[in-house]
Each structure stands twice: as C-alpha cells, then as structure tokens.
Amino acid sequence: LHRVDRRQRQMCKETDYAHPNDCQKFYVCLNGVEPRELKCDENEVFNEETKRCDKPSNVPGCEDWFDAPA
Questions:
Q1: Rounded to whole angstroms, what are the CA distances from 2 to 19, 35, 45, 63, 64?
Q2: CA pair distance 17, 25, nearest whole angstrom
Q3: Residue 29 contacts by C-beta under 8 Å, 6 or more apart in sequence?
Q4: Are residues 37 and 43 in contact, defined by beta-carbon separation less than 8 angstroms?
Q5: Dist. CA 57–CA 45, nearest whole Å
Q6: Count of Cβ atoms closer than 10 Å to residue 54 Cβ
C-alpha cells in the first residue's frame, strides 16, 4: 500500500494533482481527503490543466518524458 505524507493530504484540498517527480503519475483525492496514486497509460502523462492523461507534447515540462536517455 502506498503511504502518503501530510503534505499530500493537504494537497487534497485541491482537486486531482500531478505527482511532483513523475510525469506519468498523479493523485486522485478520495472524499476530498485521502490521496490515491494512479498512473497514466503507456506513452501518456498527466496534464494538470485538464486533469486527464494526455500526450507529453501537450504538457509543459513533460515533453521528453519517454525519450530514451542519450
């Protein structure tokens, strides 16, 4: 089970929100209190503006998320 810290619980006062370090992951707030970590399908990242999984080219900072390392 994924544990959440106090900061993540406070974020649930917002709506669904992006994971701070992984473009493909995001949190859905259950009952406005408990964040649950989810992940977009392969080749998609979470778009915090639309609150949906999207193409990386549509999400600033995640454009190169799936590019192979050089």
A1: 13, 10, 20, 27, 27
A2: 9
A3: 11, 12, 14, 15, 16, 35, 36
A4: no
A5: 9
A6: 17
Residue in the block written with tokens 């190169």: 64
**Amino acid present at 22:** D
- HSE-CB at 65 with a 13 A cutoff on CA atoms is 22
Say which residue the tokens 């989810």 belong to: 38
Among candidates 59, 57, 58, 52, which has minimal Cα distance to 38? 52
pTM, 2 dp: 0.76
Q: Which tens digit of pLDDT belongs to each residue from 9-63?
A: 556 766 788 999 999 999 988 877 788 999 999 999 999 999 999 999 999 999 9
Burial class (CB in 10 A: 0-12, 13-18, 19+), 42: exposed
Backbone angles phi, psi at 65, to 5 degrees: -55, -40
